[in-house]
Amino acid sequence: MIDLYYWTTPNGHKVSIFLEETGLDYRVRPVHIGKGEQFQPDFLKIAPNNRIPAIVDQAPADGGEPLALFESGAILEYLAEKSGRFLPQDLRARFQVRQWLHWQMGGVGPMAGQNHHFSLYAPEKIPYAIERYVKETARLYGVLDRQLAGREYVAGDYSIADMAIYPWAKLWERQQQKLEDFPQMALWLARMAARPAVQRAYALVEQVNNDPQALMSAEARQLLFGQPA
């Protein structure tokens, strides 16, 4: 059994997609980040960076004590190794997947996240910051679009790279992008959205979060963006 500490954000969706694709037994442990539940001591023991997602594997392969992990990329790699799925065994294919996973972790996530912040959440609209992150998001999607030419999925076969990138890329409209600028990405987004496991993962939103606008309140923004050291 996998305990999934989750909220309805792009990073949260990455892991729920994987779990739905593989059919691994899991239970959702909601962590409402707009109410500060990520700062609860029990959660910080699992995820010291006070961010979702996190998991606890109650039955790790080494037969030892339950294993806690935070950071969505590390979780995806761990679950791929545990299940033997969505991360190839072949050396070259495996690192093809891993480089695109890390491209998402180091590029798309941070840049699109700052795009969201300055466009939607920041109390002051700073034109330079908005333009900077909108353009960088576009540059990254241009890279993705070129990579997808002649491929159904990012690294060839469907993999954890697709699961990591999709929850961010599907928010292209919020990121002030034009989907017609990225025709290969558009086809891939439709392909991903049609997968039953992806649909089941996103259906969790209605079960877990009955107020999708909760993170827009002043109190939630202070919790999310006002943390000191």
TrEMBL record:
Residues 90-212 form the GST C-terminal domain. Residues 1-87 form the GST N-terminal domain. Transmembrane segments: none annotated. Pfam families: GST_C (PF00043), GST_N (PF02798). PANTHER family: DISULFIDE-BOND OXIDOREDUCTASE YFCG (PTHR44051:SF19), GLUTATHIONE S-TRANSFERASE-RELATED (PTHR44051). Belongs to the GST superfamily. This is Glutathione S-transferase N-terminal domain-containing protein.
